[in-house]
Amino acid sequence: MMNYKMPEGFLWGGAVAANQCEGAWNIDGKGASTADCMTGGSLHVKREYTHGVEDGKYYPSHEAIDFYHHYKEDVKLFAEMGFKCFRTSINWTRIFPIGDELEPNEAGLKFYDDLFDECLKYGIEPVVTISHYETPYGLVEKYGTWENRKMIGFFENYCKVIFKRYKNKVKYWKTFNEINAIMIMPSIAAGIHMEIGKVDSKVCMQAAHHQFVASAKAVKLGHEMNPAFKIGMMILYPYTYPETCNPVDSIEAMSIMDIHYIFSDVQVRGYYSRKAKKYFAMQGINIVMEPEDEAILREGTVDYIGFSYYMSSVASAEPEKKEAAKGNMIRGIANSYLKSSEWGWQIDPVGLRISLNALYDRYQIPLFVVENGLGAVDTIEADGSINDSYRIEYLRSHIEEMAKAVNIDGVDLMGYTPWGCIDLISASTGEMKKRYGFIYVNKDNEGKGDMSRSRKNSFYWYKKVIASNGGELK
Ligand code: BG6
């Protein structure tokens, strides 16, 4: 019989991002971030990325689920589920409100001291993303965000401050969330004013290069400040199948994955591959680099790969299908073997096993599934219970495949932090009703609700999973 148990010390937990849960967007000295300039949207209405915060518009991050004031209650619930780790991010603008200040904001630093202490009190390891889909808006206005090389210095200064401050509280770090998302949604990922579907790859690759250098500098600095730090990268990983066994479909799928691999290759191996350079030449992408960049990239390779996995994708070389696929956020077409979520994300647990194998075979460094989950509408029953069996089914099937990758295929996996362990604001649509949590938060898309927290059925299920180290998945 298949053994689904994970190795001793496996980091079971959950994940959120500061901008999607904290709220308190202008409290205690915090400045506006790019996330604070994203209006609410829906599956059919794109979020608008405004030039600063404009009057009369609804910005979901401003209050979010007010984790800033509820964190004690929430961490207590995570502890009740038995979390071994909690992945969150630091809101850069709590520490540097504009982004180019020399001195940090003490109130912002204090908040994360308190949050990390609260986690550690229950034996929960904080796993911290340094930049998760928010860039100080001040840096967008004054410097034009990541297209400008000056960003590297601001990021370095921010890292120096947080590494020093949380040196004895945080061991696991990640530099940029879904760093490759800059090629898909540059506004959300890097604050670049550019629409999804109209991405200028020249601008985005230059900005990505600055992030690579910034990340590598952070890794080197972090290791110098505390050799026990484990600093990873984080990639969005949409494994892509060819639609048919027609070899040209395989080439199409390969070329899509090759673009994603530029991001992991540079951060894991420390240089741009020959293939990446060929791609740049073909696309007319001419990255401006400084002479020292190559050495910086080489010296700042990561300790592990964190990745998000929600769905897989399909590629076809047929011109009309190829064109249609470009309009999707993740380039791809429908897979007739898979069902989709209410938001059209194709559910593919086996694809997670394939992804773990593909990444581990390519790099042979530890992996960490730092996001996975099902965004769905939940219904509260008359007795107050929430029977989210669809979410349990999604997570169970993915955990089973993850366990196969570890126990059958020999993949080295550090942990698993399902996304949105407590309901929060959706990054792509800005909605509340696209819920991922084990914990329900009483708030709707219009921002109404008393923010009370309650346990869904998946809460009790996940508690059993953790207690049995994956052995009990029913
Ligand atoms: C990942 C992001 O892309 O997917 C998260 O790192 C995001 O920030 C998550 O919330 C789920 O996406 P969405 O759009 O459903 O919130």
> What is the strand arrangement across the widest sheet?
1-2-3-4-5-7-11-12
Count the domains: 1
Q: Tell me about the biggest sheet? A: 8 strands, parallel, barrel
Please tally the β strands and state the result.
14
What is the beta-strand fraction? 5-15%
Uncertain runs: none
Helix content: 25-40%
Q: What class do helices, strands and sheet pairing give?
A: alpha/beta
Small molecules held by this entry: 6-O-phosphono-beta-D-glucopyranose
CATH superfamily, please?
Answer: Glycosidases
How many whole angstroms does the radius of gyration measure? 21 Å
Round the mean pLDDT to the nearest integer and report it. Answer: 96
Amino- and carboxy-terminal Cα gap: 15 Å
The CATH architecture assignment turns out to be Alpha-Beta Barrel
CATH topology grouping: TIM Barrel
Gross morphology is globular
Quick one: CATH class? Alpha Beta
Number of helical regions:
15
Protein name: 6-phospho-beta-glucosidase
Family: Belongs to the glycosyl hydrolase 1 family.
Active site: 371 (nucleophile)
Organism: Pelosinus fermentans JBW45
Provide an overview of this structure.
Its EC number is 3.2.1.86. There is one protein chain. The strands form four sheets. The chain has an eight-stranded parallel β-barrel with strand order 1-2-3-4-5-7-11-12, surrounded by four helices. The chain has a two-stranded parallel sheet with strand order 6-8. It is 39% helix and 12% strand. It has helices at 18-21, 67-81, 92-95, 106-121, 137-143, 150-165, 186-190, 201-225, 247-269, 274-283, 293-299, 319-326, 349-363, 389-407, 457-467, and strands at 11-15, 85-89, 125-131, 172-176, 230-236, 240-242, 304-308, 313-315, 339-340, 346-347, 367-371, 413-416, 439-441, 453-455. The longest helix is centred in the middle third of the chain and has 25 residues, at 201-225. It is globular, with a radius of gyration of 21 Å. It is built from 15 helices and 14 strands. It is α/β, with parallel strands linked by helices. The chain has one domain: Alpha-Beta Barrel (TIM Barrel), CATH 3.20.20. The model has no long low-confidence stretch (mean pLDDT 96). It binds 6-O-phosphono-beta-D-glucopyranose. 6-O-phosphono-beta-D-glucopyranose is lined by residues 17, 20, 133, 177-178, 236, 308, 371, 375, 419, 426-429, 434.
